[in-house]
Design a protein that fits this description.
This protein is mainly α and about 400 residues long. It has a domain of about 100 residues. The chain contains 20 helices and no strands. Helix 6 packs parallel to helix 8 and helix 10 runs antiparallel to helix 11. The termini are close together. The N terminus is likely disordered.
């Protein structure tokens, strides 16, 4: 698809960001490290991004794009006041091109939905050809209003404007289609994201989509193939641990878990619940319950603290999983009901995949929840199909 660029956008694209070559090199490095940190979740990458952007601004104090990316880095680190300060500083330096989207994303991260909508809508109204403003507006429709249809509309608009060259946009579309149960399109977008950025988090997400369909053999084959051409050995090992646990091949699962740990992998809160399930099923109940009790307390503490506006999905998914492994079925069902189809958004506790939920299948409340989620997905896919026929979105 050929994107039409208006004169104002062309002028902005062709504008030289700085006359200082070294500042520009630091800026590019900071930009890449910031994007990398979103996949790796590594605070070191975020610190290095700060350092590179600070060097760029030190060389050219009026380097507007570097200042805006520094604001974005503060947003990712959770320092929202500093992010607003630098966004506003950039807008003072360049009043002709105010960065409403950057301010909107700050409010999105901090859970201030009204302000987030206000600024992101202003960003799209001022520049409807900005793919990132459209992407952020699509994300906020999902996060705050659970309006997946409008979310996909704006994400597709971002994709049409940017083409298929931005991994972040492809990744968001992949999860949007996963939410509505269109796994083929989800895999297509995630595969494209992975071709653009060989990030291990994308390997994990692609595997999760396959596993959610219980395509376990295909998932293992994918991991065997991708780990030959990437440096994601630890991610591949831990995903095999998940998959073999889901298949109840627990001896093999534990082998892959130990391989990952022995190679330097730092286990996550999600890993702990899978490990507790494995321990419980192999007769190590004391160890299992110790892990589960600590996990449950930690997640309750997180819910009561300062979290990003979408972290509740992961936290409540973990609580549902942990309570189910403990046999606290009413609590597990409560959190599963609250999360609904949102639990597919990047967590390994998908309702058809996590083995701790298998014992809930005899409960009428669980069957009703599965049916509710399926009916929602069917309805959403039908609506998306109508959007395609009306040519409101293009595939």
């Amino acid at each position: 698809m050929n994107t039409i660029i208006k004169p104002a956008e062309e002028e902005s694209i062709n504008a030289k960001p700085t006359n200082e070559i070294l500042a520009y090199e630091f800026y590019l490095r900071g930009q890449d490290l910031l994007r990398k940190s979103r996949y790796t979740k590594d605070s070191t990458d975020l610190k290095l991004a700060f350092s590179a952007l600070n060097e760029a601004i030190k060389i050219d104090p009026e380097f507007i794009e570097a200042i805006r990316y520094k604001a974005m880095t503060f947003t990712e680190s959770g320092d929202y006041d500093s992010s607003l300060y630098y966004n506003k500083k950039a807008n003072i330096l360049d009043p002709a091109h105010p960065n409403f989207a950057g301010i909107g994303v700050v409010y999105m991260y901090s859970g201030k939905s009204d302000s987030a909508f206000k600024y992101l809508q202003m960003a799209v109204d001022k520049n409807p050809y900005d793919p990132w403003a459209n992407l952020a507006l699509g994300q906020i429709y999902y996060i705050f209003r659970k309006d997946v249809i409008k979310s996909l509309f704006y994400m597709h608009k971002a994709y049409e404007l940017a083409g298929d060259s931005e991994a972040e946009i492809c990744n968001s579309l992949g999860w949007g289609y996963f939410y509505i149960g269109d796994y083929q399109k989800s895999l297509e977008f995630l595969r494209n994201a992975l071709s653009l950025r060989q990030e291990c988090q994308l390997v994990i997400e692609y595997t999760q989509v396959l596993a959610a369909q219980r395509k376990f053999d295909e998932a293992i084959h994918f991991l065997d193939s991708v780990c030959k051409i990437t440096t994601c050995d630890r991610s591949c090992e831990i995903m095999k641990f998940y998959i073999y646990t889901a298949q109840n091949e627990l001896e093999k699962a534990e082998m892959y878990y130990n391989n990952a740990i022995n190679s330097g992998y730092n286990r996550t809160e999600d890993d702990i619940i899978y490990l507790a399930y494995l321990y419980k099923e192999t007769g190590r109940e004391e160890e299992a319950f110790s892990l589960l009790n600590n996990s449950i307390q930690m997640n309750y503490n997180l819910l009561g603290g300062k979290i990003r506006s979408w972290d509740w999905i992961e936290i409540k998914s973990r609580l549902a999983a942990a309570h189910s492994v403990k046999g606290e079925n009413e609590k597990a069902l409560k959190y599963l009901s609250e999360v609904g189809n949102a639990c597919v958004f990047g967590t390994p506790f998908y309702i058809n995949y996590f083995p701790g939920f298998y014992k809930l299948q005899g409960y009428p409340e669980f069957r009703a929840l599965v049916n509710r989620n399926k009916n929602e997905q069917d309805s959403l896919r039908a609506q998306v199909k109508k959007m395609e026929l009306r040519e409101e979105i293009h595939l």
